[in-house]
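Chapter review: from sequence to fold.
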Amino acid sequence: MDKAIDVKDLVTHYGEREILKKISFSIPRGKTTVILGGSGCGKSTLLKHLIGLLKPTRGNILINRKDIVSMNEDALNDIRKRMGILFQGAALLNSMTLMDNVALPLREHTELEDSTIQIMVRMKLDLVGLSGFEGFYPSQLSGGMKKRAGLARAMALDPEFLFFDEPSAGLDPVTAAGLDELILKLRNVFKMTIVVVTHELPSVFMIADYVIMLDLGEVIFSGTLDELRVSGNPRIKMFLDRRPEAETYSPEDYFRFIAGD
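The token string follows.
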């Protein structure tokens, strides 16, 4: 496997609580990798590490064989310029039109003429199905359109890596499926390395080439989608079958729990 990202023995703490427990895995180049798991499993924390927003307690994250954990801020910013990120809430600036939102990375990180930037912005908006909306403000858009606009901004610098944080969150099933199709289109056309953090099973089965599954801060699976389907791990089967974990509280434990003890 041609490794675009290699994570080795990653450990993270929030205070004294261990969130990621010496996890290791690789992300293949030019594929869509889904980081899967239930709420609180550590997948959003892991994403923050991969894009350099959070430093781990210890461990290594190699992107194109360069360890971003030990990098200074200038070197890390050079790596980030090759990343596009779609945050869960799209993170558009409400005071700016879509034209200015998408143009922002180009104006910050290039010396292109404004006329060239406007052409590039229109191309990116057309790519995500928002041609003609250049003058609209985020407040005038639906949730799905905001996600697409955020994706156009993430694509502004033609990144090598594209990261998504819960892209289907807050979207109806039809809109979410449309966004999944757009992710597939980007992978097929641009051959980018795409990393998607989600717990939405329909999206996983539609877009994933490779899956990394977390549970309680540990990697319990790393492999292809077909390998995931036939896994005999009971935690994986419970998640894929959407079965709740068996209740293990005694009545006394339950009442102590709801009382806050």
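Two observations follow directly from the output. The mean pLDDT is 88. The longest helix spans residues 173-190.
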